[in-house]
Amino acid sequence: MRFTKMHGxxxxxxxxxxxxxxxESPEALAVAVSDRHAGIGADGLILLGPSxxxxxxxxxxxxxxSRSGMCGNGLRxxxxxxxxxxxAKGDTVxxxxxxxxxxxxxxxxxxxRADMGPPALxxxxxxxxxxxxxxxxxxxxxAGETLKITCLSMGNPxxxxxxxxxxxxxxxxxxxxxxxxxxxxxxVNASFVEVVDRGRxxxxxxxxxxxxxxxxxxxxxxxxxxxxxxxxxDRTITSELPGGRLELExxxxxxxxxxxxxxxxGDWGGPGGGRPPSRxxxxxxxxxxx
Length: 290
Hints:
about 290 residues; alpha+beta; Diaminopimelate Epimerase, Chain A, domain 1; 2 domains; 18-stranded mixed β-sheet; two-stranded antiparallel ribbon; 20 strands; about 20% helix; globular
């Protein structure tokens, strides 16, 4: 099975083109290829397939094999891969995702800017089991401490916590505690953020199903929205993550921009994948199989 590894600000995924390949068990394949010792090494698996409503379709699995509705960096990289493979034409790529159709603009020097859509702020839509029209700086007990969380969905659930020194913050302890907290019926991505000034933040994110990652695109979007909701930042910010920088702007939609990098391509001979008997078989599998 042919694959491509790509990353956006260090947020890395293994991509499989379903126009040419077949994936027998995407959950098992995600676990196998994501292993950084016995596999390729990635934050998860992303499948590029055909769509009836957009140029292409994105299907994403976390490193633990669980399905995810959205990934901002993964979306931007998939759009570039789709254009490079001839699955889409021009510098604007429309991508069908589990969270709806998203538009990605391919920029010069390998960059890409995605319209991530508006944030969902209703607690029922995050989802989070807290009352009120919004959850903003709400006190929550986690890992024996009280944290103030701001919650929203960017196609997947997020909790944002502002801290004084993100470099020294125990992301593993509190990220794991929030991910599986009883408040979040679908688990949650937890971002911990230090505000440098109104236009710049430092961020680390614990992603559900993957642990701490080098960057998180939807997490950076959530941080941009949370900064505005709590009065800490402006609507246009730069987020500095362990893997690089991402540029954010919240209008009606949240816009996410940053690098897209192809690391390498190769052939996978392990569990979960295969080569279809024909091109038509791959197209059918991409539409109906995942």
